[in-house]
Structure formats: C-alpha cells, structure tokens
Amino acid sequence: MxxxxxxxxxxxxxxxxxxxxxxxxxxxxxxxxQLIDDIMSVYDAGGAVAHLHVRDPExxxxxxxxxxxxxxxxxxxxxxxxVLCTTTGGSLGDTVENRAKVVSSLEPELASLxxxxxxxxLFHVVPKYEGLWKHEWEKQYLAGTDDFIFPNxxxxxxxxxxxxxxxxxxPEFEIYDVGMINNLAYLINSGQIQTPVYxxxxxxILGGIPATVENLVYLVQTARQQIGDFExxxxxxxxxxxxxxxxxxxxxGHARVGLEDNLYLEKGVLAKSSxxxxxxxxxxxxxxxxETATPAEARRILGLKG
Length: 306
Ligand code: KMH
Ligand code: ZN
Known about the structure:
By secondary structure, the protein is α/β, with parallel strands linked by helices. 39% of the residues lie in helices and 16% in strands. The strands form three sheets. The chain has an eight-stranded parallel β-barrel, surrounded by six helices. A two-stranded antiparallel ribbon has the order 5-6. Strands 11-12 form a two-stranded antiparallel sheet.
C-alpha cells in the first residue's frame, strides 16, 4: 500500500490591502490596471488565490468602490482562473454596511470575514515616513487611528455570515487572536456558522497576537480543540511573513503572502510585485517537498462554488 497523497498547499496573495500607502513602496498596486497586473503576477508565479481590496486610482487611498471591484474582477476572470477572495474588512474606519456591499455586488466565491473586533493600529509606522509622504491623506489615515477599533461584533459576524450564505460565498475567517477562535466555536455550536470552516490566522498586527511559531502552533491546536475539522492558512505582517508562512507549510497548512502584508522580498529589498513573493514561497515549498494547489484544486479543497 502506498502512503496517502499529502495535501496540497494553497498559496494566496493579498495584493494591496488597506494599510500600506503609496509612499511606502512604488510597487504597491493602486489603480485597476496595476491591481490586475499584480494579480496576474501572482497567477503566473503559481498562486491559487488573490485577496482583493481596491483603491481610489487618483490618490491611492483605500476605498471600497464597487465599480472598481467589478472592473478588476471581470478582467482577471477574462484572463485566468485564479480564485478571487474579496475583502469585507474594507479600510480603516469604513462602515460595516460599506464593507459588506461587495458580497451582493460581486457574489464572490470567497470573501474575508473578520472573526472579532480589535484595536487595529498603524501609528507606530508613521515616524519612519515623516517628511516623505507623497499624499496628505496618508499620514492622516495612519496616524489618525490611535483610537481606532476594527468592529466585528457577534451581531456583525452573524450578518456577514448570513449575507455570504445567501450568495454562495465561502467565508475566509480572519483570526487575529486566540479569542476569535472562541467566537467562531460559539457561532458554530449555536448553528449560525456552517462547517467546515476556512481560517486565516493573521499574525503580528499591533492589536493582535504576535508572530511567533509558538503562537501559530497554539492557534492551530486551540482551533482543533474548539472547532475540530477545518482548513487553515497563515499570513503575517512585515518581516515575519516568510518565517510564518514557511512554518505553515511544514505544519500542513496553507499560506498567504502579498504586498498587503509585507512590502519586502528580503531585508532591505522591496518586492516588485506580489508575484515575486509567491515565487519565493513556491521555491521554499519545493525545497520542503510541499506541492502547491492550482486554482481548480484550491476550489476543491475549500469547497468553493467556482
Ligand atoms: N482592512 C484591515 C483593517 C480583510 O481584508 O478582511 C483588515 C483587513 C482584513 O484587511
Ligand atoms: Zn485584506
């Protein structure tokens, strides 16, 4: 008897997010064309999923504009079969209503669903860019968040879940700290969330759990105890990105890279695209003997509508 086929790892790339700003990297995609190019770089490098936020093309400011979401999604779908995971996290200070709109307007196969509230702070990065800001809004946006709460109450999570189930959208639950696993376990046990769930552990955000191997193991073990069977992936902010995603691959998990989480390819070297980071992680996976999933395989693993 041969040994069972090892599961394939899904590589996701989050191409722009709502945290990094134009001053921080000339390679951060801002316009619809740049977003499409960056997603294609992910696909060409072997990524199976692209996580998508959109921005105002003039200023680069994060903005949940449904027309831009539609434009980017339509062109990407025309060019390739990569899975699109649209954000419902939105941008700092965005309303829950606005964050939710993309689900009904795009009916995506996968969308982020943030599993709890947290203090999501970026003011600690502001001093590094003092005197360099390209746009007035950037400093305001980041430094103005010192009293900012990213609201994802039980009621909000329930509403997002109901909305996604109406449109056949699979939630990707973003877990920023261990208590959020408890939130999901409660919602699963009370019948409000269907299993199996897909978890994205987000490590190293100021306001969330630090990016350490011990914490990653703790999160996965806690989820096993509380939830049972699930698919999981890891992403980590800044320089922890490749250490945490490599560990995820070794633990049998999936992994997310991309310029939303980290602007660098290695110390002091900006990544020119999210695809460069995908290519690096794919090389690491190859060295470790971990096979990576195609978009079609990712759809099967996650049970997406396609
Ligand atoms: N926009 C951030 C506050 C998501 O995409 O769902 C969190 C975020 C998560 O980016
Ligand atoms: Zn995001």
